[in-house]
Amino acid sequence: MTSTPPAIELRGISKAFGPVQANKDISISVQPGTIHGIVGENGAGKSTLMSILYGFYKADKGEIYINGQLTPIPDSQAAIRAGIGMVHQHFKLVENFTVVENVILGAEDGAMLQPSISKARKLLTDLAAEYGLEVNPDARIEDLSVGHQQRVEILKQLYRQADILILDEPTGVLTPAEADQLFRILERLKEEGKTIILITHKLREIMEVTDTVSVMRRGQMTATVKTSDTSPAELAELMVGRKVLLRVDKAPAKPGKTVLEVDNLRVRHHGVDKLKGISFQIRAGEILGIAGVAGNGQSELLEVLGGMIPAQGGTVRMNGDAIDLTGAKSDGQSRRARGIAHVPEDRQSEGLIMPYEAWENMAFGYHHDPAYQANRFLMNNAAIKADTAEKMEQYDVRPRNPRLPARNFSGGNQQKIVVAREMERNPDLLLVGQPTRGVDIGAIEFIHRQIIALRDQGKAILLVSVELDEIMGLSDRIAVMFDGQIMGERLPDQTDENELGLMMAGMTKGAA
Amino acid sequence: MDFLTILQILDSTVRLATPLLLACLAGLFSERSGIFDIGLEGKMLAAAFASAAIAFVTGSAWAGLAAGIGASMILALLHGVASITFRGNQLISGVAINFLAAGLSVVIAQTAFRQGGRTPALTGDARFTEITLPFADAVADVPVIGPIYANLISGHSILVYVALLIVPLTWWVLFRTRFGLRLRAVGENPAAVDTAGISVVGLRYAAVLICGVLCGIAGAYLATSLSAGFVKDMSAGRGFIALAALIFSKWRPWYALMACLLFGLLDAVGNRYQNIQLGDFVIPVQFMQALPYILTVIILAGFVGRAIPPRAGGEPYVKER
Predict the structure, then answer these.
(1) Which CATH architecture does the domain made up of A8-240 adopt?
(2) Which residues on B lie below 8 Å from A102 (Cβ)?
(3) Mind listing the pLDDT tens digit for each residue in B110-138?
(4) pLDDT tens digits, B137-166
């Protein structure tokens, strides 16, 4: 035995949900003052394991030791008492409360608020100085950026004197710069002796900040290694159970005729100028990647081209003919008729209707397809289901059940349903937004290969992503958007992340 | 319109606004915790019946008040069990409570008193009578201030003063206490409350029961103070007007007071003036009496500003991973 007991030790944790064994005999030990990564595909059981540690679920079997002491954790309060704090993937903040109100919620000192608020305000100032967690205590959560909201979550845990911090997919919602900031904060916390568990499926983050890393697959812990002794390729293989290509191989593009011409496009949405006159072209057989920090007009660009919002000016030509940007002929239906397919950024609210079954989702937007009609009045549901089953096979959607509601598929499989629906329509132009957000590593590889394959069939593709790796890996040309404008275009092999990062921050090479 | 007439209208405004205000604050507690309650009407009606019946039997208005609160809390608990414990649809549960109260009150009244579904008229101590504040008679002759104090401020039932005191009390509880912070949080984001280690279910039951107490007072006021006994459907849609006032007030106690006074004023004006003559044009009495309801429809249709309800309102809380 070493002199200091591990901060956390789990022994033989098992948990089943009905017939599904979410965690199977998991043992892990984390040394104090370290950052321990847990990686695994969606559904591998990472979140379940952490929920057990945080008292959200009770394990069927197994023991939890905190600092060497056997500590039963029947509920979240026990976890808080044991010094465990959790930063959830979806923040648990009250949006119209101030920062300080959120911080004290559940950890008030007495029946009256005022003393707690004064104390918390002072403590927040101290914590801000100590860990670089600056945030205005009196700001409302809804007015804060996502990165600052996450700081509030961390501050909440520190206010409760948590020594062990669990972060569940913390960078899923952050920009690259915000993620870097978060990692600096985590380093500081580590230096102060806090123990951190980082759950993620982004291997780069694991390599960057963790000291040790555990890999989970199908409810089991398959390996625990020192980060310095492993590589992304090895971790990916451990996660998926087979070799994974982290970067898609693709042949050089063979661009053909111009498919999409956008000229001086302007969009005003919710009273804000989102697109301030942007122009670009995409030719057949090439992928134009749009890089940028979320919220710089990329979403509106996809929405206006996809027929979801009207434009205030400019022209868009599809195969040489102008398309309507306002009025009745500017809806999604008309866009599809012109050969534009759209994989929207937010599959759960724009791409799918979550309670509807897969086959119903597969028909959306293409429900006028003659092949789907039984006669003038009724749809041929059997035909849609058969078509869905075929596409599920082709795109390896699991489980292959057309009758399953969309929400019961994992993120990656939901995305595959959307991608299958849009790509199999053989569009001339495919709009793709954040194709792999919240998608696990095996599905990412698959979707990337499908996008390349579509390009090689001579289609034009507009790819919007906040993941620079994705933009760099897939695009034939890269345009960077900042504040509703295109800062410039680059070729992926003639630029690097530094240059693109500067452009994303609004600086051009000349000015920098 | 002379000064005394205005005072009289304002006086009845206060009296008519009181049940609205109590019901509105009741709804405020419930909805701030994320439980929509369209059963305010039913709870008031049940409380009105129970208080009238018990007040008649015992001869004590206070016993009637206790019975009214009890009856209302039973229905509140029912709403809680249906919508918190069993995560049922809150609107349907509320509608059911309204029907239940409307039917049961008349049936029981008929069985017990055989007076056509009403309770016998209450007299003496079975009613909350008007109390005269100190010096009301002494200052009555002082110009302007005298009549205002003697007629408008003094001379209401104790329940009117209770209702008015509950406004600052509600504000204080909501915005100055730990309970209030948690209550507001659970109506906005129950997951935040849950992960902070606080019971969502416990908080929501507390809110629903407070709602029951306030509706109980409102109902007792209707039967033992504003009138003298229970008659069929005597709540007359006040529960729904209170809901409109709640939306109008954007779920804030002081605005709730203002909104309820506005509705009370419309009611008072409608009661006082039969036909209003504007030159050759006569506004019929029916229109004046319909005014509170018309305003309700306009508010509920969302014409008055943008009211953002508590974000988790109407949604049963299910723990997620």
Answers:
(1) 3-Layer(aba) Sandwich (3.40)
(2) 192
(3) 999 999 889 999 998 999 988 888 888 88
(4) 888 888 888 888 888 888 899 999 999 999
Give the pLDDT confidence score for residue B284 in this predicted structure: 81
Q: Do A94 and B192 touch (CB under 8 A)?
A: yes
Residues belonging to chain A: 512
Q: Do B197 and A77 touch (CB under 8 A)?
A: yes
- Residue A310 to residue A270: CA distance in whole angstroms: 12
> What does the alpha-carbon distance between residue B189 and residue B193 come to, in Å, rounded to a whole number?
7
Give percent of chain A with pLDDT exceeding 70. Answer: 98
List pLDDT tens digits, range A365-407: 898 889 999 998 999 999 999 999 999 999 988 888 899 999 8
Write down the mean pLDDT value for chain A.
89
Minimum mean pLDDT among A30-34, A209-213, B311-315: which range? B311-315
Strands of the sheet with A313-318, listed across from one edge: A272-283, A258-269, A313-318, A321-322
The residue of chain A nearest to residue B176, with distances taken between CA atoms, is A113
Cβ proximity of B17 and B264 under 8 Å? yes
Which residue type does A53 have? L
Q: Which residue of A has its CA nearest to B198?
A: A106
Q: Do A48 and B182 touch (CB under 8 A)?
A: no
Inter-chain touch B192–A48, beta carbons under 8 Å:
no
Of B176, B181, B319, the CB nearest to A105: B181
DSSP state of B118: -
List CB contacts (< 8 A) between B180 and chain A: 113
The answer to whether A105 contacts chain B (CB < 8 Å) is: yes
pLDDT at residue A13 greater than cutoff 70: yes
Whole-angstrom CA distances from B315 to B20, B29, B62, B204, B212 are: 26, 16, 37, 12, 20
Mutation target to probe the A interface, by most A beta carbons within 10 A, among B195, B306, B308, B320 is B195
Strand B276-278 to strand B281-283: parallel, antiparallel, or no bridges (unpaired)? antiparallel
Q: Residue A203: pLDDT band by 50, 70, 90 thresholds?
A: confident
CATH topology of domain A258-349+427-504: Rossmann fold (3.40.50)
Q: What local confidence, expressed as pLDDT, does residue A2 receive?
A: 52
Taking the Cβ of residue A142 and every Cβ of chain B, the question of whether any pair is shorter than 8 Å is answered with no
The C-alpha atoms of residue B172 and residue B175 are separated, in whole angstroms, by 5
Distance CA B278, CA A495 (A): 79
Cβ of residue A74 closer than 8 Å to a chain B Cβ: no
Considering only alpha carbons, which residue of chain B is nearest residue A52?
A: B321
User: CB-CB: which of B176, B180, B189 is closest to A95?
Assistant: B189
The residue among A149, A154, A189 whose CA lies nearest residue A173 is A149
Upper half-sphere CA count for residue A7 (Cβ side, 13 Å): 21
Of the ranges A140-144, B24-28, B60-64, which one carries the lowest mean pLDDT score? Answer: A140-144
Which pLDDT score, from 0 to 100, does residue A25 have?
92
A93/B311 Cβ within 8 A: no
Q: Which residues are paired to A281 by β-bridges?
A: A261
From chain A, pick out residues whose CB is under 8 angstroms from the CB of B179: 111
Instruction: Give contacts of B193 with chain A, Cβ < 8 Å.
Output: 105-106
Q: Are B314 and B90 in contact (CB under 8 A)?
A: yes
Looking at the predicted complex, does its ipTM rise above 0.90?
A: no
In chain B, whose CA is at the least distance from the CA of A113? B177
Instruction: Please report residues of B whose CB lies closer than 8 A to that of A94.
Output: 184-185, 188-189, 192
Statement: residue B276 has pLDDT above 80: no
**A125 vs A100: CA distance, rounded Å:** 11
Please, are residues A423 and A454 in contact by the beta-carbon 8 Å criterion? yes
Domain definitions of chain B by residue range: 3-235
Pairs of residues, one from chain A and one from chain B, whose beta carbons lie less than 8 Å apart: 72
Contact state of A77 with B311 under an 8 Å Cβ cutoff: no
Does pLDDT of B283 surpass 70? yes
Domain chopping of chain A, boundaries:
8-240, 258-349+427-504
